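seq as requested:
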Amino acid sequence: MRKPLIAANWKMYKTPAESTAFLTSFYPLVKSNQTTEIVLCPPMTSLQALTDAARGKSVFIGAQTMHWLNEGAYTGETSPSMLTAIGATHVLVGHSERRQYFNETDTTVNLKLKSALAHGLTPIVCVGEHLNERETNLTADVLNLQVSVALEGIDPATLGPLVIAYEPVWAIGTGRTATPEIAEAAHKIIRAKIAAIAGAEVAAATRILYGGSVKPDNASALCGLEDIDGALVGGASLDPVSFSQIVINATKA
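struct tokens:
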């Protein structure tokens, strides 16, 4: 059984005070949950406040990005050792907005994935196609390439912590959501590629999340499918009641 994972990506929202206030409101709503891994990914400025506030609670704290090196002359970057030092346990890698606005590539995703695994962080590697790629039947090609490059040169024996998030770029922040059938088909492509690279056992154990306009009213239908193991949630994760309902509905699925 793959443990479901529901992750909140807060993007560039919430101060440290707002982040801890969210946790104060959110945690009582999901405290009884024992079956789903819950991860909050705040802005870097809120990481320390949230890791402190989450101690002793069944909520994990992750970063939205990181550099692959431990230190160096890289102004504005955060290293994996800095993340682990403050208690972060997860990290998003290659989110579509990082690729689109900050020139991240499949190659840098590979470097970050190797580094995250080496430092004991749980990497949530984001992959997904743009609208024009879906409309020209290139979804499988795009996903296969992104997964292949991400996993290049990595020992399959080290991939136990790996999480993949399928986020169709055309569904992020647009209100458009892939139907459960579209999402499940994409997840099957990803799992098959992992199997081809790292073996069937690794593929069967790898959690693949869906991300793209996930809301309380569609979480159950999406997460109830065989190959969908949870969700990466953007806008709907900013409100504690909304996000708690996603966790609850996904768990029921």
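The longest helix spans residues 180-198.
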